[in-house]
């Protein structure tokens, strides 16, 4: 824990909190750190929805698989970002999604239900944690609406361009690196990889973009 403690203030959950308050919070919320190898499951669909996770290193992907094994990537969380908090706060008995680590990752877990419950230790900063958590959930709702906007487009080309334009806006540059490889991007856009690759090839020929692996430039 000591290796990450000085960096935890970068996490939005601990915004406007001092180091001493963060340390007390970690003790109050039964914190624990777990290391995950590449491509391992962090959460399985159907397991109890009690904890939220904070990525200390690496990244995680929130995924949904249908009965036939088709995978959709609902989101990706990177260093110091949270996942699982909405399901725990909603008091769901089990998780409706799975979470995987696409690379070697270290995760800090906190008991989310102890955040919403009255703190037996009467922590003065408990209210700040709740406020920060509400802001995080609201922000993720906006991001989810953005994904709906992308995937509701009619064609693979329209979905791809909508996603890439949003990435350019968020990076304030026509050149940017997306957080997905080609298969992951296809899963996120909910399209066939072959069809998406064909559209990327057409867009390159038309002079609309250039790309190398995950690096894109909109022309």
Walkthrough of the structure:
- By secondary structure, the protein is of the alpha+beta class.
- It is 39% helix and 24% strand.
- It has helices spanning 2-5, 19-28, 85-89, 113-116, 126-151, 156-171, 182-189, 193-205, and strands spanning 32-36, 40-43, 51-57, 60-65, 71-77, 82-83, 98-101, 105-111, 175-177, 209-212, 215-218.
- The strands form three sheets. The chain has a four-stranded antiparallel beta sheet with strand order 1-8-3-6.
- Helix 5 (126-151) packs antiparallel against helix 6.
- The protein is elongated.
- The model has no long low-confidence stretch (mean pLDDT 89).
Radius of gyration: 19 Å
- Tell me, briefly, the overall form: elongated
Residue ranges: pLDDT <50 for 5 or more in a row?
A: none
Query: Main sheet, how many strands, which sense, barrel?
Result: 4 strands, antiparallel
Order of strands in the sheet with the most strands?
1-8-3-6
Count of DSSP helices? 8
Helix-strand blueprint:
Layout: H1 2-5, H2 19-28, E1 32-36, E2 40-43, E3 51-57, E4 60-65, E5 71-77, E6 82-83, H3 85-89, E7 98-101, E8 105-111, H4 113-116, H5 126-151, H6 156-171, E9 175-177, H7 182-189, H8 193-205, E10 209-212, E11 215-218
Antiparallel strand pairs: 1-8, 2-7, 3-6, 3-8, 4-5, 4-7, 9-11, 10-11
Helix pairs in contact: 5-6
């Amino acid at each position: 824990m000591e290796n990450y403690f000085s960096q935890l203030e970068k996490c939005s959950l601990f915004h406007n909190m001092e180091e001493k308050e963060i340390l007390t919070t970690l003790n109050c919320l039964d914190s624990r750190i777990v290391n995950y190898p590449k491509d391992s499951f962090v959460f399985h669909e159907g397991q109890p929805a009690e904890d939220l996770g904070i990525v200390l290193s690496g990244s995680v992907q929130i995924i949904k698989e249908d009965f036939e094994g088709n995978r959709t990537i609902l989101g990706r969380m990177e260093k110091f970002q949270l996942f699982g908090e909405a399901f725990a706060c909603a008091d769901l008995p089990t998780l409706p999604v799975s979470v995987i680590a696409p690379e070697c990752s270290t995760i800090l877990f906190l008991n989310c239900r102890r955040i919403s419950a009255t703190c037996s230790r009467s922590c003065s900063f408990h209210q700040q944690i709740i406020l920060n958590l509400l802001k995080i959930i609201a922000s993720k709702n906006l991001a989810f609406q953005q994904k709906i906007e992308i995937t509701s487009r009619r064609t693979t080309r329209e979905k791809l361009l909508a996603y890439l334009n949003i990435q350019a806006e968020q990076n304030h540059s026509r050149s940017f690196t997306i957080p997905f490889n080609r298969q992951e991007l296809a899963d996120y856009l909910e399209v066939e990889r072959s069809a998406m690759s064909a559209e990327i090839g057409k867009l390159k020929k038309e002079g609309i973009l250039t790309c190398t692996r995950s690096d894109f430039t909109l022309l």
